[in-house]
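Risk register update: the risk of archive-format incompatibility is retired. Evidence:
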Amino acid sequence: MTIKLTNSEWEILDHRLCCTDELAEVYADTMYCNAEDAGSKISNEQRDALFAAARAEADRLHDQISESRIIDVAALSEIGRFIIADCIDGSTFFCGIDDAVWDGELTKGKVLSLRKAGHSLQRKFNEAGIECEMNWS
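Archived output:
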């Protein structure tokens, strides 16, 4: 399955996808905690390798999606699926958006359009089997 992004959907996704170091950090920390929960340990070298792999994948996804605005869900690696889901789950795109209206930086119509795009983006990913939920505040 492929997902075609609108410009507004890309703007929302890219708000976090461009933060490749942060995405890699979240992935490495999550895998470290999952290993601890399973009763095993990850060495610093293994954690660094997870970080490097996630950073490379985040960079690749950012470059690929920014060019085409298309995501081939079937071709995503486990790390890629994690990163795409975290771009929605960890998004801060809508935090303070109401203040931007109050300050005159955005119109109410633009905010409504962006919220609609956010709902569409979340729906597209969920329908493609990437479970995620947008932070709306």
